[in-house]
Design brief:
The protein is an alpha+beta fold. The chain is built from 7 helices and 4 strands, in the order βααβααβααβα. It has a 4-stranded antiparallel sheet. Pfam families: NDK.
Length: 138
């Protein structure tokens, strides 16, 4: 099934200049970049994005980190894009991520794990609307 999913290359990926390598991995896998922008995430956007974690003790850290410097926000499109992107990313905790996954190859710690990808088609739709307008997605 053809799907769109949101991917954020977090501040640590942008600062380390590995965004291009990660984007190339998606393209080599046959996925398409349907929208992309380098942007500074506002605190309001970050709070909406991480709303499911609002009551957790690490909520403030998530918001602080994602708003600390620019991210690359993308809509990635392809067959079963949500599941494919999630498998390419690896486990949330880099220590549990297999070599060959994005986090396994590039992430160093749980709080700075390089990338976010939507975890379901419903989450993808909600998250894409936080970062993109309909006319920005091709």
């Amino acid at each position: 099934m053809l799907e769109n999913t949101l991917v954020l290359l977090k501040p640590d990926a942008v600062k380390r200049s590995i965004s291009g390598e990660i984007i190339a991995r998606f393209e080599r896998r046959g996925l398409t970049v349907a929208a992309m922008k380098l942007m500074k995430v506002s605190r309001e956007q970050a709070k909406k994005h991480y709303d499911e974690h609002r009551e957790k003790p690490f909520f403030g850290e998530l918001v602080d980190f994602i708003t600390s410097s620019p991210v690359v926000a993308m809509v990635i499109r392809g067959e079963n894009a949500v599941k494919m992107v999630r498998s390419m990313m690896g486990a949330t905790n880099p220590l549990d991520s297999a070599p060959g996954t994005i986090r396994g190859d590039y992430a160093t710690e749980m709080s700075k794990n390089v990338i976010h990808g939507s975890d379901s088609p419903a989450s993808a739709e909600r998250e894409m609307n936080i970062f993109f307008t309909k006319d920005e997605i091709f």
